[in-house]
Amino acid sequence: MDNYGLFTKSISLENLGIEDANIRYQLSPDELHDITIEKGQGVENSTGALAINTGEFTGRSPQDRFIVKDSITEDKVWWGNVNLPFDSDKFDALYKKVTAYLSGKEIFVRDSYVCSDANYRMNVRVVTETAWSNLFCYNMFLRPEESELEDFTAEWHVVCAPGFMADPAVDGTRSHNFAILDFTRKIALVGGTGYTGEMKKGIFSALNFILPVFKDTFPMHCSANVGAEGDTAIFFGLSGTGKTTLSADPKRKLIGDDEHGWTNENTVFNFEGGCYAKVINLTEETEPDIFRAIKRGAILENVIFKPGTNEVDYTDNSITPNTRVSYPIYHIDNIQPGSIGHNPKNIFFLSADSFGILPPISKLTPGQAAYYFISGYTAKVAGTEAGVNEPQPNFSACFGAPFMPLHPAKYAEMLIEKMRNAGVNVWLINTGWSGGAYGTGQRMKLKYTRAMITAALNGELDNVEYKDHTVFGLAKPQSCPDVPAEILNPRNTWADKEAYDAKALELAAAFRKNFAKFEEFASDEIMAGGPLA
After folding, report:
1. What's residue 245's pLDDT?
2. Residue 244 catalytic?
3. pLDDT of 427-470, one tens digit each?
């Protein structure tokens, strides 16, 4: 039986193995919002956004993410602790159980697409067990015009059944929850978890394989914006490094905040149609764009209200520190039309170095750019996780290892090629500590970081004097507009210079130890980009 929402197209899911379902097709955000509240699965907050609880899982479960090992993936995927193989026959059997579970139920179906550049567009049909999961996909994927739906043909499918629990002994999973990509069947299958990010990251992990392997396009876990002169800037960075904050520049238009492709036509396009931002400790002063985007149509996940109200207490992490909001990109005013940029000129690698060792800004050679890209470095500060009592290095290859099916060296080689062909400058930015490690030094002032990025974007660092870091070999500018010269050389900011030298050698050793697993696949140029000492 088919039911209809905003659009009046009759669809069937029998080709997916789902039969006799009450299909709620292409419902509007308002309809999905109201259905969620009517079913008691969410409440409305004081700004009109929908607040839901994702249940047992409040984040991704990397150990339960699999890729089906078949003729497409067997010789291309970098198998290991990140990309776990799943048997094709086991997938078939598990998929049939999931579709049988969904058959006869009320389910929500959405036709959408990813990749804002029409030359790379991939149509995706999303099938979800809950209305709020479908609203999340409305926000995060790109939205076809009504005229495009009549002849819509899905290339990939996302099937999400949070209420289905796998039997590991029978189904081949590790636990009752799972997120599995099958590149032959072109299905992202999610079960046993209500965490919405599994759907987003599933389809974007697929693109991180499809684009480089089949379309010669470089996929990036990054944010991007465009200046008044049409120049594009790209920002890579792990959580907590300032990627979202620094790419939200009132003088530049936002392309997107998380996932992009860089084409041979030298364009940068957004994969997605929305933003999925952390909201822990959110304030209007620190993140005005995100704060103001939390209105009707947005979905808040795992937040707590202030007692007796429906006003969110953004400081409350009693459910999880990973509180989040998803919203369509049009909730932000200063966005790039079409979510496509041209003429990339600057790339910024953001690292929150809580050791206080790395310079606040360095200009990288192509070999260094590849080395630091593969390394994907930031550092955890004391108190952020149980057992973390002092700064610890944190490496995530390509600044997004959990979502990269290929070997990191493959992505790094594409980066080097793009750098050379486009004449792009690559900068390493330390948004972390200066004058000592966390607990002794001070966090780099945001106004200084913004000034350094602005200077790089405006070409004001092109003709200044540079000196190489004695341990890391990084080229440090000796002057920068609106930035005190003394902070540009991190050793100068430490009272104990010998302590700085010792800690710099310790951090360099951590880089080399992490990179050892990549050496076999890295070129001499990339290897030469590492620490000198």
Report:
1. 84
2. yes
3. 999 999 999 999 899 999 999 999 999 999 999 999 999 999 99
The question of whether 258 is a catalytic residue gets the answer yes
Q: Which residues of 134-162 are buried (b: 16+ CB within 10 A; e: fewer)?
A: bbbbbbbbbbbeeeebeeeebebbbbbbb
Q: What sign results for the dihedral spanned by CA atoms 149, 151, 154, 159?
A: positive
Per-residue pLDDT tens digits for 190-249: 999 999 999 999 999 999 999 999 999 999 999 999 999 999 999 999 888 888 889 988
Asked about 201 being catalytic, the answer comes back as yes
Given the residues 12, 46, 239, 440, select the one marked as catalytic. Answer: 239
Q: Can you tell me the distance from the alpha carbon of 270 to that of 219, in angstroms, rounded to the nearest whole number?
A: 10
3-class state of residue 23 by DSSP: strand
Instruction: Supply the DSSP symbol for 486.
Output: G
pLDDT of residue 337: 94
Distance separating alpha carbons of residues 325 and 69, to the nearest angstrom: 33
The pTM for the full model equals 0.93
Check if the beta carbon of residue 206 is closer than 8 Å to that of residue 115. Answer: no
Quote the crossing angle between the two packed helices 131-140 and 29-38, to the nearest 10°: 150
Structure tokens at 505: 């050698």
Copy the structure tokens of residue 172: 């081949």
User: 3-state DSSP call for residue 500?
Assistant: helix
**Contact (Cβ atoms closer than 8 angstroms) between residue 45 and residue 305:** yes
Annotated catalytic residue 243 = yes
Q: What is the DSSP letter of 356?
A: S
Residues whose CB falls within 8 Å of the CB of residue 407, separated by 6 or more in sequence, listed in order: 78, 521
Is 324 part of the annotated catalytic residue set?
A: yes
